[in-house]
Amino acid sequence: MGKMATPAQSCDYLDALFGQSGRTAVVTGASSGLGAEMARVLASAGGDVIVVARRENRLLELAESAADLPGSITPCAADLSGDDGLTAVAAAVSERGGCDVLVANAGTVEVGKVESMDDESFSRVLELNLTSQWRLSKTLFPWLAKSDAGRVINISSIYGILGPVRSGLSAYAASKHGLVGLTRTQAIEWAEQGITANAIAPGYFPTEMTEQLLASKAAQRLRELVPMARFGTARELAPALLFLASPASSYVTGTVLPVDGGWSTW
Ligand SMILES: NC(=O)c1ccc[n+]([C@@H]2O[C@H](COP(=O)([O-])OP(=O)(O)OC[C@H]3O[C@@H](n4cnc5c(N)ncnc54)[C@H](OP(=O)(O)O)[C@@H]3O)[C@@H](O)[C@H]2O)c1
């Protein structure tokens, strides 16, 4: 009969697999919603997390709320649509001396049907949801390559793998599909440096981005499209992130992990 692990031994085992202590993460779009929760989970696992978004007051509140966690949260106010924002993130990473995990989560949505959306609107969505994610990963690549376990996690969407059930999401769906293409390419090109790149494809989660929609009449139909018949909570997304960010997922790369209550399995 095999020996049973004592509780202390099993904690050490889990910590070796999923712990983030000694590791630095950058989480973009962390001033609200899914990004704020993902930053907290990484700090709860002992990671030092640089949180990026435009609303600095929100980032400061998040850092304060994390004071008791084993890791730390450091605000970095930056607009990722422009070069200045990238410079600010690079400076924050340089100050910490490294980056092991990039969670590319900042995102936006603008609604307009294919035939009527204007150029500026389409470009703004593509710029933040796709181009800035590529640019940031390129900026952080030297640090990720130096890490023992560099991880890129791109937050795509079920609309990055499937067509949108609501009309007007052409720019959003194009950007999120593009992000999946970027993820697969990062996985292949950066395998040599030991960096894994994966995407998470969330279904519908109540956040600032979706609160109006999910409080409207349309919510009932959307809920019916989820086999689990409910929307997700940010807490249910965070553990998927922790798996992909941790040393435990060392042989998992180029995948898209739906966290969607079964939406994508119909
Ligand atoms: N909620 C869902 O149902 C759902 C489903 C699938 C995928 N997603 C994806 O999940 C990610 C997070 O969305 P969420 O639902 O948590 O929405 P959210 O609460 O609106 O969060 C969006 C985040 O992006 C940041 N952001 C927006 N523009 C930015 C810019 N120019 N520079 C830097 N940061 C910027 C926002 O912060 P500031 O305004 O402070 O800059 C905010 O922290 C997005 O990529 C979204 O597409 C969400």
Provide structural commentary.
45% of the residues lie in helices and 14% in strands. The chain has 266 residues and is α/β, with parallel strands linked by helices. The protein has a seven-stranded parallel sheet, with helices on both faces. Helix 2 (33-44) crosses helix 9, helix 4 (83-96) packs parallel to helix 5 and helix 5 packs parallel to helix 6. The radius of gyration is 18 Å and the shape is globular. The mean pLDDT is 96. NADP nicotinamide-adenine-dinucleotide phosphate binds at residues 28-35, 53-55, 58, 79-81, 105-108, 128, 155, 157, 202, 204-205, 207-210.
CATH superfamily: NAD(P)-binding Rossmann-like Domain
The sequence of SSEs as H and E is HEHEHEHEHEHEHHHE
- Give a short account of the largest sheet: 7 strands, parallel
Largest sheet: spatial strand order: 3-2-1-4-5-6-7
| C-alpha geometry | globular
CATH architecture: 3-Layer(aba) Sandwich
The CATH class turns out to be Alpha Beta
Chemical compounds bound to the protein: NADP nicotinamide-adenine-dinucleotide phosphate
Our count of domains comes out at 1
Give the strand content: 5-15%
In terms of per-residue confidence, which ranges show pLDDT below 50 for 5 or more consecutive residues? none
Radius of gyration: 18 Å
Please count the helical segments: 9
Total beta strands: 7
Kindly, what is the distance between the CA atoms of the first and last residues, rounded to a whole number of angstroms? 43 Å
CATH fold name: Rossmann fold
Structural class, by secondary structure, is alpha/beta
